[in-house]
Fold this protein.
Amino acid sequence: MSASPILELDALVKRFPVKGGLFGPRKFLAAVNGVSLEIRRGETLALVGESGCGKSTVGKAIMKLHDPSEGRILIDGHDIAPLTRARMKPVWRKVQTIFQDPFSSLNPRMTAGAIVGEPLTIHGLASGAEKDRIVAETFAKVGLRPDQMSRYPHEFSGGQRQRLSIARALVVKPDLIVADEPVSALDVSIQASVINLLIRLQKEMGLAMLFISHDMSVVEHISHRVAVMYLGRLVENGPRDEIFRNPQHPYTQALLSAVPVADPARRNRERIVLKGDVPSPIDPPSGCPFRTRCPLAEEVCTTTMPEPTAASPGHGFACHVRAREVAA
């Protein structure tokens, strides 16, 4: 893997205005609150957490579908956060996305070949017979037949439609793929084939990938590193094996305790059931955002935000109690 990151997020914040009462003060929902992470070429970073934790907002901010409120988004060392949509075209050539629902993200009035070939036209990379050749090669690369180029999206199965979405993302040979829950809308029976396709293509093309998911079983299979989000903040970040075999943050431990595992060494892990619901991001708890559901919470957790602590090289977490135990 390259030493220099293809993507760096530096204290990324995204707030959405929320309507208050008629005379009440204007409020904001902090969907992403100070997230910093990086991805290197040839690496897959999985961003995980419960629904509503802000992980999809991170992906949309990277694609500039949402403008960040604060922080930097660096692609190859260049901050794209201040760029307008009009100036994003060269960036979108480098950064492509795969959406969750392959049906709604494909234009039903366009043939499959036209859908996959459209990015080549937009970026001025190919036209005519050359474009048709590249599209046919990309079809074959994702497991579709070139003779299917004349079909329309409704003529494909769900798994085939997601392969179309993958082909559309890869046809311009990007450096980074943002995959937002790319298999969650698919039947379990075909999820594995799509995941294995992504792993193979990532290795063949040397892609960097941000894989956004709530499914820890899928994450363990596809990722090199894992970043865990809770209520808009990163609570743990590290190599996949470190996260799965030695989770430090109580929230990560709770997520992993619910995952069925075949490994005898991990099979007897006690199931951790979190109490209560995720607090509102409009009015988050003081101190540690996880404290209202945390089985380890202490007085300090109500007043002070925990600082990142290193459990091992490249493996960090943010928890007052566990930090004290690690230091002991």
About this structure: The chain has a mean pLDDT of 91. The two ends are 34 Å apart (CA to CA).
